[in-house]
From TrEMBL:
Belongs to the methyltransferase superfamily. Type-7 methyltransferase family. Keywords: Magnesium, Metal-binding, Methyltransferase, Transferase. This is Loganic acid O-methyltransferase. The lineage of its organism: Eukaryota, Viridiplantae, Streptophyta, Embryophyta, Tracheophyta. InterPro entries: MeTrfase_7, MeTrfase_capping, SAM-dependent_MTases_sf. It comes from Sesamum alatum. It holds the Pfam family Methyltransf_7. GO terms for molecular function: metal ion binding; methyltransferase activity. Transmembrane segments: none annotated. Residues 1-20 are annotated as: Disordered. PANTHER family: S-ADENOSYL-L-METHIONINE:CARBOXYL METHYLTRANSFERASE FAMILY PROTEIN. One of its GO terms (biological process) is methylation. Gene3D superfamilies: Methyltransferase, alpha-helical capping domain (1.10.1200.270), Vaccinia Virus protein VP39 (3.40.50.150).
């Protein structure tokens, strides 16, 4: 934890367990043509639609009385999975302004507004240099970087007032072990993600996802103050959709996987290399996520909204769609297959997108984003 006050840093890191099974995977760094900065409008589309809901929930549900009594050193906000900040900055502006407005309307101004601190968190390989070099110059908060996995503890106990995460909680701490074992009923041979026709693989991924969401909630339960709020924007899929005429993000990923198999068939890489590669993501359905969140003993589920894939029209060409997936997946792909295959892989992926009448139309993208608002129960 990078902090002006060194004591907070020491307190936060004492006795906090560090997981070693987490894929050290970050979005593409910098601001070049293949960077996440230049290719994350799809993810950013959710922020504007979520804005009035987040503002309403802060106004209605944030316990300003408790917040004032527990924040002599300021109000602390965290974005878990911030990447290089391109979409995070607009979200943090929404949150901080709503907190200021709530504070002012409470009649507790007493001459000054609270000092706000925003913790930007992502994996240790994240490009924090780009994030901090592009911070808004006139922001209304102090910025702090905390590298590490958000599935474990990162912050001091009872220090956090508002938690936020967008397009990050689909990430798993690990690929389910059974998926990579050739003798297992869940062996995912020839695929890089689960498909709906392989129940054993889907179940293995869902079980891992459930464990990881529960671990995220357990860590935040220790870090958050009583009455603190959490807003989670989670990419998801509808319960049903027609794969013949529609697609979701898992469809896109499996199309990319078919390109790897094509390259294996041409001798560009080994089929065994593809068989041993599975992406550590799970895209939940609303029903699955609601069931997981409602089991929590530390949080109440205040609101669950389905946002109808607000970013889909930002990918107006197959080149834009390929660039989006490259910015997200290149690190994992290069680590496993080598960087020398990346250009060829995404050229082939672009060709497959162009040849598909389904993927050419963004209206066929049935991916959704779920906005979940949770409140920390009183101890």
């Amino acid at each position: 934890m990078t902090c002006k006050n060194g004591k907070a840093d020491n307190d936060a890191n004492e006795a906090l367990p560090r997981r070693t099974d987490v894929p050290l995977h970050a979005m593409n760094a910098g601001d070049g043509p293949h960077s996440y900065v230049q290719n994350s409008s799809y993810q950013g589309g959710a922020v504007d639609i979520a804005k009035p809901i987040i503002e309403e929930e802060i106004s209605k549900n944030l316990d300003i009385k408790n917040l004032s009594s527990t924040s002599p050193n300021g109000v602390w906000i965290a974005d878990f999975g911030c990447s290089t900040g391109h979409n995070s900055f607009s979200a943090m502006q929404i949150v901080t302004q709503a907190i200021y407005k709530k504070h002012a309307s409470s009649g507790r101004i007493s001459g000054k507004v609270p000092k706000l601190f925003v913790v930007f968190n992502d994996v240790i390989t994240n490009d924090f240099n780009t994030l901090f070099s592009s911070l808004p110059p006139h922001r209304n908060y102090n910025a702090i970087g905390v590298p590490g996995t958000f599935h474990g503890r990162l912050l001091p106990e009872s220090s956090l007032h508002f938690a936020y995460s967008s397009w990050a909680l689909q990430s798993l701490t690990e690929v389910p072990k059974a998926v990579a074992e050739s003798g297992s009923a869940a062996w995912n041979k020839g695929k890089i993600l689960y498909t709906r026709d392989r129940k054993e693989v889907c179940d293995a991924y869902l079980n891992q996802y459930t464990k990881d969401i529960e671990a995220f909630l357990e860590a935040r339960a220790v870090e958050m103050v009583n009455g603190g709020l959490m807003a989670l924007l989670i990419p998801a899929v509808p319960t049903s959709w027609n794969p013949e005429t529609e697609y979701t993000i898992p469809s896109d990923i499996n199309l990319l996987g078919s390109c790897l198999m094509d390259m294996a068939n041409k001798g560009r890489l080994s089929e065994a290399k593809v068989d041993s590669f599975n992406l550590p993501y799970y895209f939940t359905t609303p029903e699955q996520l609601k069931a997981i969140l409602e089991k929590s003993h530390s949080f109440t589920l205040e609101r669950l909204e389905i946002l109808n894939n607000p970013g889909k029209h930002t990918l107006c060409s197959v080149e834009a769609r390929a660039a989006f997936f490259r910015a997200v997946h290149e690190g994992l792909l290069a680590d496993h297959f080598g960087s020398e295959i990346i250009d060829e892989l995404f050229d082939l992926y672009t060709e497959k997108l162009e040849a598909s009448p389904v993927f050419l139309n963004p209206n066929n993208d049935k991916s959704i984003v779920i906005l979940a608002i949770l409140k920390r129960r009183l101890n």
